[in-house]
Here is the input.
Amino acid sequence: MSMRYYRRFRMEIDITRVRLAVPKPADGYGLLQWSDDLVERHADVKYRSFRSDLDSQVFKCLGRIDGCLGLMREIVRQRTFLSGTTWLGTFHPDQDWPPQDCGTIQGIARSRKVGAIQ
Here is the structure.
C-alpha cells in the first residue's frame, strides 16, 4: 500500500501592522456580497474550480457538486462564518454577455483577533 502526503501552506499577514488598500476588481469583474440565496452559486463555482484539481483528491467533497453544496451549507452554519467578508466573484466583459460566476471567497473568524479567508 502506498501513501501520499500533501503539504498545504498558510499565508499570514498581521493587518494591524500594514496599511492595505481597498482592492478594486479588474475591468469586467465584480463582487457580490454574501446573501443566503447565493449558496448554490458559491457551491457551483467551488465545484468547477476544484473538480479536476489535486484538492478534490484530498477533499473528496470538492469533486462533487453535492459535496460542494454541503460544504458551503456547513460553512455558513458555523458561528465563525463572517458574511460581511464573503463574496461571489463575477465576470461580465460587456453588456452583450451575461455575467459569469468565477470565484468564491469565504471569511471565517478563527478567534477574536485572527480571521481566515478561504
Q: What stands out?
A: The first strand starts at residue 29 and ends at 33.
